[in-house]
Amino acid sequence: MTARQILIVEDEPTIANILMDYLAKAGYQPRHIENGAVALDSIRDQEPALVLLDLMLPGMDGLEVCREVRKFSNVPIIMVTARVEEADRLIGLDSGADDYICKPFSPREVMARVGAVLRRIQPGEVQASNSLIEVDEESQRISMAGKRLDLTPTEYRLLRLLVTRPGRIYSRAQILDLAYPDSEDVSDRIVDSHIKNIRKKLNAILPNAEVLHSVYGIGYRFEI
Is 127 domain-assigned? Predict the structure, then answer.
């Protein structure tokens, strides 16, 4: 990974130039590629700190680029798209994106999103602990404020998934795929039920700690 380097994958020159200017002024090292297939090769050869990825691209569309990148890298990806429907946002998140921004957008909003994602995600590393919550993968236990949570195996897998990527939004479909690997017929409403149970156990230790956040129409994220 190249520190502070942001790769802009965008085929509209005006938008790309605006993002390049704002990123440079913010102290980043922006690069611009307008072709999806070329961008994929570039990420393989020289992984950036973050990718701003448009959906509609020549060579390979943004969703396919994202899916292919996720086969070999956890580099943060922010989708930039003119598609504003909920289903389109879910598809982007399910393909492995960490966040999304809808066009038209404010460049300042993009800078804020870039900064937020970089603060909460270290590409290629698993963030499994902080001052409030700790994950012990050997014993498959999670502790909060130094006290062990009494979790079922499924609750452990679900909470671990969210904790190790703080701030990232996971759709219910993603949670089902990643936290319920052996359950083909599980309903996504089961996820809601487990989240409810986990919240009760977290609140039993710290009543005022709201760390599992619902994202309306999409899914859940862990953030302190």
Answer: no
Q: How far is CA 183 from CA 115, 154, 178, 180, 186, in A?
A: 37, 11, 10, 6, 6
The whole-number pLDDT of residue 166 equals: 80
Of 221, 197, 224, nearest to 210 by C-alpha is 224
Q: What is the pLDDT of residues 42-83, one digit of tens each?
A: 999 999 999 999 988 999 999 999 989 988 888 889 988 776
Cβ burial 134-170 (10 Å sphere, 16+ → b, else e): bbeeeeeebebeeeebebeebbbbbbbbbbbbbbbbb
Give per-residue pLDDT as tens, 167-204: 888 888 888 877 876 655 667 778 888 999 999 999 88
Distances (CA, A) of 132 to 50, 55, 144, 206: 27, 37, 6, 10
Same domain, 14 and 112: yes
Q: Return the structure tokens found at 110.
A: 């993009």
Task: Tell me the mean pLDDT in the region 197-220.
Answer: 86
User: Which residues neighbour 110 within 8 Å (Cβ) at sequence distance 6 or greater?
Assistant: 19, 22, 52, 78, 80, 101
Report the CATH number that the domain containing residue 138 is assigned in CATH.
1.10.10.10
| Residue 35 belongs to domain spanning | 5-120
Report pTM.
0.58
The reply to whether 125 falls in a domain is no
**Per the structure, how many domains does the chain have?**
2
